[in-house]
Design brief:
This protein is mainly alpha-helical. It has 6 helices and 4 strands, in the order αββαββαααα. Strand 1 and strand 2 form a beta hairpin.
C-alpha cells in the first residue's frame, strides 16, 4: 500500500498512524513517507530485526476497515496495472488478516468485487 493511500484511509477512519517497532507516531504524510524507503531495507533493532517492509505491510493493513477501503486499494492496483498495459491478473489476498481484526468478510469481498467489475469495464483489466 502506498503511503498516500494509507494516510487517506487513516484520516477517513480516524486512525492514528503509529509504528510499534519504531516507537513512532506519524502526524503528517511526509513523516509517514520517510518510513516507506523500501529501496534501502533496514532492520529495526529490538524487534527481531524486522525489516521496514514488514512495518509498512502490516501497518497498512490496520487502516483497512470498511468496504470503501478495500475498493480504493483494489482500484489503485488495477489502475497501476492498466498503466503498465496489464490486461489480466490473478490476485491473491488474505481475508483472514482482516476478519481476525473484526472486519466483516463482506466488506473485504464486496470492496474487491466492486473494483474488479469497474476495472473490467473502465480499464479493460480483468482478474
Amino acid at each position: 500500500m502506498f503511503p498516500e493511500l494509507r494516510w487517506k484511509l487513516a484520516q477517513r477512519n480516524g486512525i492514528k498512524l503509529r509504528s510499534e517497532r519504531l516507537k513512532k507516531e506519524f502526524n503528517t504524510l511526509e513523516e509517514l513517507k520517510t518510513m516507506y524507503n523500501l529501496l534501502e531495507p533496514r532492520s529495526i533493532k529490538g524487534a527481531n530485526q524486522v525489516s521496514a517492509f514488514f512495518d509498512a505491510y502490516f501497518g497498512g493493513m490496520e487502516v483497512l476497515r470498511v468496504e470503501e477501503d478495500f475498493y480504493d486499494l483494489a482500484m489503485i492496483y488495477f489502475e497501476r496495472a492498466a498503466s503498465m498495459n496489464v490486461r489480466y491478473s490473478e490476485l491473491f489476498f488474505d481475508p483472514q488478516a482482516h476478519t481476525r481484526r473484526g472486519v466483516a468478510l463482506e466488506a473485504v469481498m464486496n470492496g474487491f468485487r466492486r473494483a474488479q467489475i469497474e476495472a473490467d469495464e473502465r480499464l479493460q483489466v480483468s482478474c
